[in-house]
Amino acid sequence: MISPHVRRSVVTGIGVIAPNGPNTEAFWKATKEGISVLDRVTREGCGDLPLKVAGEVRGFDPGELIEERFLVQTDRFTHFAMAAANLALEDALLGRADYNRSPFAVGVVTAAGSGGGEFGQRELQHLWGQGSRHVGPYQSIAWFYAASTGQISIRGGFKGPCGVVASDEAGGLDALAHASRTIRRGTSAVVVGAAEAPLAPYSIVCQLGYEDLSRSDDPIRAYRPFTDSACGFVPAEGGAMLVVEEQAAAEERGARARAFVAGHAATFTGASLWEESREGLSRAIEGALEDARCAPEEIDVVFADALGVRSADRAEALALADALGGYAARVPVTAPKTGFGRAYCGAPVLDIAAAVLSMESSVVPPTPNVVDISHDLDVVTGKPRAAELRTALVLSRGLMGSNAAMVLRRGEKSPS
Amino acid sequence: MTAQLTLDELAGLMKSTAGLTVDPKEMADRPDSTFAEYGLDSLGLLGIVGALENRFGRPLPADAERTKTPRDFLELVNTDPVTTTGA
């Protein structure tokens, strides 16, 4: 039984900037249909690098969405985050009129995996090409992991608790958990999520050391987790921001509780030690279920980490079996990210967005480009699968060893 | 030859380095208006100082980055013996 004193966190707004859609509606339509947008890398200066396939956010004009004074002092990763935050706030119908009198009731939390590499590269080129006097002062903030949290806070006037989670890809889920704890301690709302921009020359070079990065030049075959042809993961740009609110505060202003952040747990098992991630991930799943007071059989869909590395995929399948027992082979599992790539910290937040939208639409989106599953899992492939979804489990692992699991419960059904 | 910085040029620098659209006429009409009122923070002013130093090829007075108004900034830059005798 849930104590009446527990302040529960509900998702009231979703904002997505993703390779398969520059807004939430387009993202969900492409995700639900399983449309793959993985393609050859076309970003400037990246053509000769060994990373050939990625999920690029195309047709995104930050100037249409964000004031120039914020654009000149921020990297692309922050442009994505600010734009996604805008969408989430609009979706939640949370405007300045709602918090003008109590700006300290709204906080911001983001997760970041690498900061602003493109901006940083430009300024470092000025440094070594022209000298230190040619490095702009915004270098001091733009490539910093905390840039997106700070700029969203400044731009929106959110003066409540702000934070940045730097805990690897799984940090996307940890940021949401952090937001929930912030709400439990008294904050009314938190703008929370992650967006990344890893597709620029310097940023790509930083990733080339990852053995797990897919070197395939075929967009159809580059990212195929849970199959015998798995050859690594495909990176992506973009991410998602959410508005998470304390349930009563949301109700009071008439906002719809779209999903409950019900449970979370995180573990650490070391960089690229995928066999070890089995135990770490299963412990995270068990912890999240316990936190959510959720039995394994209550889980209606799993959004898998789906790294696309055989040892990692095997570890994830076994972690599910360890934590869910025989039910692991029956619960629908999906990984929509095979259609648009892994946006590092943004990846699990995109999965959270997809999970909320899936529960609202009563459909499990498929796992694009994936056929012939070689594990004892019911991976949804080919086309979307209709299903009543009350509870979703979202999993994430980072290349540096973080593992996290989050349980979401469906909120109120849409009035439509 | 002197390098007198004008409000027009300052407005141009505010645009190019800090992304701010400021009407130079407004800065002239309201001589007490502050950089903060135009949305320029300390980092933004530092960027303008840096751009001018690169243009002049020599440092501006140390107080330049601490001025609060366009008027004070211009006064300092345009009366500095180092900058005004150079370029």
Topology overview:
The complex is a heterodimer of chains A (416) and B (87).
Chain A: E1 9-17, H1 24-33, E2 39-40, E3 53-54, H2 68-71, H3 76-92, H4 96-99, E4 106-111, H5 117-130, H6 139-142, H7 147-156, E5 162-165, H8 171-184, E6 189-196, H9 201-207, E7 238-246, H10 247-252, E8 259-268, H11 274-291, E9 301-303, H12 310-324, E10 332-334, H13 346-361, E11 363-364, E12 378-379, E13 385-386, E14 391-397, E15 402-410
Parallel strand pairs in A: 4-5, 4-6, 9-10, 9-14, 10-12
Antiparallel strand pairs in A: 1-7, 1-8, 2-3, 6-7, 8-15, 11-13, 14-15
Chain B: H1 7-18, H2 24-29, H3 42-56, H4 70-79, H5 81-85
Helix pairs in contact in B: 1-3
Domain Carrier (chain B): 4-85
InterPro entries (chain B): ACP-like_sf, PP-bd_ACP, Ppantetheine_attach_site
Pfam family, one (chain B): PP-binding
Biggest interface = A-B, 14 and 13 residues
CATH topology assignment of the largest domain in chain A = Peroxisomal Thiolase, Chain A, domain 1
Task: Please identify, by name, the CATH architecture of chain B.
Answer: Orthogonal Bundle
Main sheet characteristics of chain A: 11 strands, mixed
How many domain regions of chain A?
Answer: 2
Number of strands of chain B: 0
**Main sheet makeup of chain B:** none
Strand order within the widest beta sheet of chain A: 5-4-6-7-1-8-15-14-9-10-12
Count of separate DSSP helical elements of chain A? 13
Q: N- to C-terminal separation of chain A? A: 31 Å
Strand content of chain A: 15-25%
Helix content of chain A: 25-40%
CATH architecture assignment name of the largest domain in chain A: 3-Layer(aba) Sandwich
Organism (chain B): Streptomyces albospinus
InterPro entries (chain B): ACP-like_sf (IPR036736), PP-bd_ACP (IPR009081), Ppantetheine_attach_site (IPR006162)
Protein name (chain B): Acyl carrier protein
Keywords (chain B): Phosphopantetheine, Phosphoprotein
Describe this structure in words.
The complex is a heterodimer of chains A (416) and B (87). With 416 residues, chain A is an alpha/beta fold. Chain A has an 11-stranded mixed β-sheet, sandwiched between helices. Chain A has a two-stranded antiparallel sheet with strand order 2-3. Chain A has a two-stranded antiparallel ribbon with strand order 11-13. In chain A, β9, α12 and β10 form a beta-alpha-beta unit. The radius of gyration of chain A is 20 Å and the shape is globular. Chain B is mainly alpha-helical and 87 residues long. Chain B has one domain: ACP-like (Non-ribosomal Peptide Synthetase Peptidyl Carrier Protein, Chain A). Chain B contains 5 helices and no strands. Chain B is globular and about 30 Å long. The N and C termini of chain B lie close together (7 Å). The model of chain B has no long low-confidence stretch (mean pLDDT 90). Chains A and B meet through α2 of A and α3 of B. Chain B: It comes from Streptomyces albospinus. Chain B: Pfam families: PP-binding (PF00550). Chain B: This is Acyl carrier protein.
